[in-house]
Specification:
- It is a single chain.
- 23% of the residues lie in helices and 24% in strands.
- The protein is of the alpha+beta class.
- The protein has a single domain, classed as Clavaminate synthase-like (Double-stranded beta-helix, 4-Layer Sandwich).
- A 7-stranded mixed β-sheet has the order 1-2-3-13-5-15-4, with helices on one face. The protein has a 3-stranded antiparallel β-sheet with strand order 12-6-14.
- β1 and β2 form a beta hairpin.
Amino acid sequence: MPLTVTPLTPVFCAEITGVDITKPLDDATFAKIRSAFDNHSILIFPDQPMNDAQQIAFSERFGQIERSGGVNPGAGTSFSRQSNIDIKTGAVIPKDDRRMFYQKANMLWHADSTFKPVTSLCSILSAREIPPVGGATEFASTRAAYEELSDAEKAELEGLIVEHDFIYSRGLVGFTFTPEETAKFPPVRHRLVRTNKNTGRKSVLVGAHAKCIVGWPEDRSRALLDGLLACAEKPENSFRHEWRDGDVVVWDNQAAVHRATPYDTERYRRVMERTTITFGGAPEFPVGTRTAARA
């Protein structure tokens, strides 16, 4: 069966069949996958059960893998583990454990790694073990949000810089870091408008990590960022993926946001392994100190 790209919505997201991504890919095949990624932002590969080595090999076709950090149990490795299972013991993590509290922020709309000095190109998430009920992932197109703006609104966004702050975003769900952890995550700045170099299409870099527009009053800043996110998450610009064992999903962190949805963490096991590909290059702006709110 030849590689087939099937769009799942008129706006974004496609399913890819007819290829085995657990095996080495020739350049021509990967070029088709990369083209589909640039055009559809979200790629779903059904029935592709993979181990760590296979996921790393596939991920590296997109670029350099980030090392994970924070409180994630995979910190220091190529993987960010999204799970309620203790990585060392295999036991279910209690719901009141700090590690589960940390994961609650994953239910906020966000793009991975925007809180880092260099943003990420994409993430690859493989379903190793899924619950029978719940645990879907929802996606929203920030490219669609940009393209729905008027010409005047698009002009206003050009040149705007956003401060992204991991401590701020985790604080939205009440999670607190230790002083030592906080010191590892200074705020960073990125341009709001992003351009896909392969298609020329633009998007906006928003989500939970986006704290404020640099130089704007807090109320005006929040109104713009929240308004762009609200446009992205409209039903016609969003997609909900119900996971199946062996699914692999690739998403564009420059052109989409995503969020986890609940499942019964005490009754069901869930093991998902994520690799994240750095956008590459040098930071857009020097790492700075946190911006105080302006009236």
